[in-house]
Amino acid sequence: MKNGTVYDIVIVGGGLAGGLAAVALARAGFHCAVVDAANPVKMREAAFDGRTTAISYASARVFRRLGLWDAVAHEAEPIRDILVTDGRAKSRFNDGAVSSFALHFDSEELEDATPLGWIVENRFLRNAIFDAIETEKNVDLFAPAKRAGANFNDGSAEVLLANGETITGSLIVAADGRLSALRGEAAIKTNEWRYKQTGIVVTVAHERSHEGVAQEFFLPSGPFAILPMTPVHEDGQITKHRSSLVWTEREDAAPAYMALDDEAFRTEIENRFGSYLGAVSLAGPRWSYPLAFTLAQSFIAPRLALIGDAAHAIHPIAGQGYNLGVKDIAALVDVVTEARGVGLDIGAMTVLQNYQRWRRFDSATLALGTDLLNRLFSNDFPPLRFARDIGMEAVGKIAPLRKVFMRHAGADLGSLPSLMQRDV
């Protein structure tokens, strides 16, 4: 029942972050409303578009504990190893180069040899979350629904819809993305800047298996990531090996690459990809988007909490953007559950400040770390190139340090919320 209902929490944005937040909060016993402008039926019908998400092993614990992992496990390709190298792309002017220094992370070095993470197509994550919302009695979905505004009062908050409906709750969660309108309406300022880079995303097929190895190839224009995807099967046989490419390119050069015909674009990929997996072909559409840094100066306001990209949007260099949002969700669940347990108002600033203390410093540290890493590697200055190669080699030789970096990649460092903690 929707009309006249007063909710515990109203979530604005029903994407991968907002939808997961609704499921997690509902399973913790909170009555939630989700407001999203997109039509869920059309979202479900969307064909493969090449876009994927990296799920760290600590984030995967959240999906397991919420009962979502079984729905995506068969479409989740494990990352067994990560190989980081430095070099230059092949072109008509040079033959390309790969540094003799490299950094190798092997999941076998972790305590239980868990994969470092998984690569999952967004459509499978989205459908698993929608399925859970549809069957969750503690969630009401308002979609497609255009939001017209919000009111924040002493005792409650309201989300106003364009059709005249008002949805009331104790707390509003902003999961409405990097350009969050709710964040702006709450007068929360941001630290932000544009990178002079564009992200190009495409799925490719290749002859040989990737063996679960994710590659991060640092080029002067930015990182070129090769992420393992599930193969395509027909009649029980593998007919196509696949990888997802996240190609960071200079913003002034990216439009020309995007305008190439398929064969010329494939050649440019091969110039960066190399031949270690055999011949490469395009296996999906291409996407491009400008890269930017956004960090909210506060993750909270009266009766408002920011999660996901509404709180922080970072460079994709480390594949940690969505995992930061998962940790936001898990932390918020712990904070509001504890507050409810002692009879506190879950939307009160004294409660939300606990969420802010938990998440903002951690998020800022990772966001600025990825920014520094991108600036360090996205150049061709010889002394700096030599220094970073020596640094990679040194890290690679120190096992305890390697494990710290692997736990960092797995989102398994710091004070972990209950949903992300390792089973004991």
In round numbers, the mean pLDDT is 91
Q: Helical segment tally?
A: 12
Helical residue percent band: 25-40%
The amount of beta strand, in percent, is: 25-35%
Poorly predicted runs are none
Helix/strand-derived category reads alpha+beta
What's the CATH class label of the domain at 6-51 and 122-192 and 292-379? Alpha Beta
Query: How many strands in all?
Result: 21
Cα Rg = 22 Å
- Gap from first CA to last CA: 40 Å
Instruction: Specify the biggest β-sheet.
Output: 10 strands, mixed
CATH topology description of the domain at 6-51 and 122-192 and 292-379: FAD/NAD(P)-binding domain
Anisotropy-based shape = globular
Give me the CATH superfamily of the domain at 6-51 and 122-192 and 292-379. Answer: FAD/NAD(P)-binding domain
Architecture (CATH level 2) name of the domain at 6-51 and 122-192 and 292-379:
3-Layer(bba) Sandwich
Describe this structure in a few short sentences:
The protein has 424 residues and is of the alpha+beta class. The chain has helices at 16-27, 40-45, 57-65, 69-72, 122-135, 181-185, 254-259, 262-273, 321-341, 349-377, 382-396, 399-409, and strands spanning 6-12, 32-35, 52-56, 76-79, 81-88, 97-106, 117-121, 139-142, 147-152, 157-161, 166-174, 190-206, 213-219, 222-228, 232-234, 237-250, 280-282, 287-296, 300-301, 304-306, 312-313. The protein has a domain at 6-51 and 122-192 and 292-379: FAD/NAD(P)-binding domain (3-Layer(bba) Sandwich), CATH 3.50.50.
